[in-house]
Each structure stands twice: as structure tokens, then as C-alpha cells.
Automatic annotation (TrEMBL):
Keywords: Coiled coil, Phosphoprotein
InterPro entries, per the entry: Bact_response_regulator, CheY-like_superfamily, Sig_transdc_resp-reg_receiver
Organism expressing this protein natively: Streptomyces sanglieri
Ranges that cross the membrane: none
Residue positions where 4-aspartylphosphate is found in the record: D55
Listed name of the protein: Two-component system response regulator
Positions in coiled-coil regions: 160-187
SMART domains on file: REC
PROSITE patterns: RESPONSE_REGULATORY (PS50110)
């Protein structure tokens, strides 16, 4: 069973959270509610999230302050944040959102189809990153447990071949996703995130190639 990604929804108004859940339910992922910035930060202490939808105007800790705390934490600083706001004070206000670390800034009322499409891109990138980390961890465990290499009837070589094939499938999906983003004239943040994933894939491919017999070994990308 493929593990579902978690999406954090942060808004102080229950009706807004309900609307977001209705829009994103079609993605079939795990939706987690938070009614304040403090509650969102608490959820981020224990769970990993693919993307955060964060309301700007909240009593107490607003969206900008919440985002600042998220970006200061090593565990959470790379999680994409999409700001949602019911007000629009022009370019300066939007710039403040991006300066706080947001990958996108959407004004309410927003198009449900657009929001769902944007969130789905980050969920897909998150799932590919998870798969990449799992394969890298599997390779590390195999190498650490079998430093002798060929002493165990060529099992490491077989594992390398299997991982190389799996990586090729992920590389193909990432390339197709990048082309799709280009074709749909996606926002720059999503394109940049896809490019970051492709760089990670390239690093892992080089590491796998270097582990082939006769080429020595190198450290795997984190």
C-alpha cells in the first residue's frame, strides 16, 4: 500500500477549513487541520507534510509569523507553503508573502481547480522524494551490511541493478513532470521544485554508477 502524503491546512475559520477539505478531497491524501499558527507548529513537530496551505490573516500569530517559524526549523524549512489571503494590498503585500518563504500566494476567492492542481504538483514531488530517500536508505543498509561485496554470491550487484532500474523509472516520471509543467506554463516555484528533484536524481544516479564494480564508491546524496 502506498503511503498517503499529509497536507496541512491552517485557517482560524472552520468554514474555510471545511471548504479546503472539500476542494482537496479528490486528491485522496491525508488532510490535517490547524486552527492557528501555534497549532500548525505543534503538528509540524511530529508529522511530515508535502505542502502547507496557510491563511495570512489569523488572530495572534498570523501567517507571516507562522511561516517565519516554519522556515527557521531545519526539519520543516523545505516544506512548500502556499499562502491564502482574503485581502490584497498590491505587490508589496504579495512580496511579503514570498519573502516569508511562500512558494505561492493566492487571493480568495480562488479557483478550486487551480488550487487543487497546484497542491497536486507538490504532493507528487513529495512522493517522488520519499521514494528516492527509501531507495537510498536501502542501498546504504545493503552496503553497510555487506562490505565484502562479492562474498555473498553477487547480491550487492543484483541490488544495484534493481535500484538502478527503479531509479530509471523515477527519472522518467520526473522528466515527464517537468515537461508537463513547461507545457502548462506552471508558476516558477513549481518549476524550481521540479528542477531541485531532478538535481537530486542526478546525484543519486552518479552515486549508483560509482558503486558499479571497478569504479570505487562515493557518498550518497542526502
Amino acid at each position: 500500500m502506498v503511503q498517503k502524503a499529509k497536507i496541512l491546512l491552517v485557517d482560524d475559520r472552520p468554514e474555510n477549513l471545511l471548504a479546503l477539505e472539500a476542494i482537496l478531497s479528490a486528491l485522496d491524501q491525508t488532510l490535517v487541520r490547524a486552527s492557528s499558527g501555534e497549532e500548525a507548529l505543534k503538528a509540524l513537530l511530529t508529522d511530515d507534510f508535502a505542502v502547507i496551505l496557510l491563511d495570512v490573516q489569523m488572530p495572534g500569530m498570523d501567517g507571516f509569523e507562522t511561516a517565519a517559524h516554519i522556515k527557521r526549523r531545519e526539519r520543516t524549512r523545505d516544506i512548500p507553503i502556499i499562502f491564502l489571503t482574503a485581502i490584497n494590498h498590491g505587490p508589496h503585500h504579495t512580496f511579503r508573502g514570498y519573502a516569508a518563504g511562500a512558494v505561492d500566494y493566492i487571493s480568495k476567492p480562488f479557483d478550486p481547480w487551480v488550487l487543487r492542481a497546484k497542491v497536486s504538483v507538490f504532493v507528487e514531488l513529495y512522493m517522488k522524494n520519499c521514494k528516492l530517500r527509501e531507495q537510498a536508505a536501502l542501498l546504504r543498509l545493503q552496503i553497510e551490511g555487506d562490505p565484502g561485496g562479492a562474498d555473498h554470491e553477487g547480491e550487492p550487484a543484483g541490488l544495484l541493478a534493481e535500484l538502478s532500474a527503479r531509479l530509471a523509472a523515477v527519472e522518467e516520471q520526473a522528466e515527464a513532470l517537468s515537461k508537463q509543467l513547461d507545457d502548462e506554463s506552471a508558476d516558477a516555484a513549481a518549476v524550481a521544485t521540479a528542477a531541485h528533484l531532478e538535481r537530486k536524481l542526478t546525484g543519486l544516479r552518479r552515486a549508483l554508477d560509482a558503486l558499479e564494480p571497478g569504479t570505487g564508491s562515493v557518498g550518497l546524496p542526502s
